[in-house]
Amino acid sequence: MNRSNGLKLIVVVVALIVAVFLSINPIQNKTKLGLDLQGGAHVLLQAVPEPGKTITTDDMTKLKAVMENRINELGVSEPRIQSEGKDRLIIEIAGVDNPDKAIDLLGSTAKLEFKDPSGQVVVSGSELKNAQARIDSNTGQAEISLEFTSEGAKKFGAATARLVGQPISIVLDDKVIQSPNVQEPIMNGQARITGGFTFEEASNNAALLRGGALPVEVKVLEKRTVGPTLGKDSLHKSYIAGIIGLLAVVVFMFAYYRLPGLLANVALLLYILINLWIYTLLHITMTLPGIAGFLLTIGMALDTNIIIFERVKEELRAGKSLYAAIDSGFKRAFLTVIDAHVTTLIAAAVLFYFGQSSVKGFAVTLSIGILSNLFTAITFTRIMLVWTANIKSLSHRKLYGE
């Protein structure tokens, strides 16, 4: 029994150390940094009303939504989009060095129309379900594959049935891309756009079409490159400060709680690794508030272990055996831990629902940290404590701070 539990502990610790070293480069290379950490582009747009009309609140709401969709479709890091006055939008995009590139991505109207020979619109981009760039296997040319909604498919099918032998013009932003003749009715709700695109152009146009056409025209009032709020030097110093703080906490946990403190440090290492991999796999953009949320949950993870260990020490002082004290201590601490975490999780949900941009990033990292903390503290730490309690050389009460 002793040898089996000792072997399990060694295997877990070694596997965890190996996992940390193997994870360093992938996490560093795939972590996305927000505007405040790496800088980006700042663009000020003004909505331009049609003649005789005014810009409404609904127009600006739709414009903001389309901009958010476009940025998400193009895979750009977490943007900051906020209104200024009644007809302006401020857009800041991380990782974009060239403001002109940002304008090309955001300023295009992306108004798609299919017109018959008389110029009448038979299907519009609002009835588009999906758009994807691809390479034609026969010609090797880039093209955009379109899929219409059920209503759009009906309209397109009816139009192609009516116009067999006649051209249908594909118009993007009032520019005729091509005017192919209809060979036969197309009833499957699919079409394609060719026109000498490069694959990058096809991909950008497809992303803009998926994001939706702008509800109003916009003009650029200002464009500039912004630097990171912290700067590289300050960010490096923040890393150093974080490492020093973490080492101080690790030393304290070991010095005060002894063997349980050492196991808590191992669990903390697993906790950090789980969080960083979740951020990487979900492509979460790390901003300063997001990092603050992560560091806050590290403190919460240690607090959870402290609550549990103090309950275990109380049980040991009451005269219970080590194994019984561990079991009873975890049971007594469980409701307190769950209550604290659920309360914080509710607060994070409120922040995410009502917050904007970086505030949502804080809420996301906080929520992920809370959930992973419950696993590492209640499950992983407990398993390791039970293993050590069953190892004769590690079952002395003095090793548990008693």
UniProtKB/TrEMBL annotation:
Pfam family membership, one: SecD_1st
Domain SecDF P1 head subdomain: 120-216
MF-aspect GO terms: protein-transporting ATPase activity
Ranges where the Protein export membrane protein SecD/SecF C-terminal domain occurs: 217-387
Keyword Cell membrane attributed: yes
Primary localization class, coarse: membrane
Location of this chain's protein in the cell: Cell membrane
Keyword Phosphoprotein: no
Keywords for the protein's UniProt record, in alphabetical order: Cell membrane, Membrane, Protein transport, Translocation, Transmembrane, Transmembrane helix, Transport
Transmembrane stretches, start-end: 7-24, 239-257, 262-282, 288-312, 333-355, 361-387
Gene Ontology BP term (one): intracellular protein transmembrane transport
Domain of life: Bacteria
Record-linked InterPro entries: SecD (IPR005791), SecD/SecF_arch_bac (IPR022813), SecD_1st (IPR048631), SecD_SecF_C (IPR048634), SecD_SecF_C_bact (IPR055344), SecDF_P1_head (IPR054384)
An annotated GO cellular component: plasma membrane
Domain (Protein translocase subunit SecDF P1) ranges: 60-117
Membrane topology designation: Multi-pass membrane protein
Oligomer status and interactors: Forms a complex with SecF. Part of the essential Sec protein translocation apparatus which comprises SecA, SecYEG and auxiliary proteins SecDF. Other proteins may also be involved.
Family, similarity comment: Belongs to the SecD/SecF family. SecD subfamily.
Main function: Part of the Sec protein translocase complex. Interacts with the SecYEG preprotein conducting channel. SecDF uses the proton motive force (PMF) to complete protein translocation after the ATP-dependent function of SecA.
NCBIfam families per record: 2A0604s01, secD
Protein name as annotated: Protein translocase subunit SecD
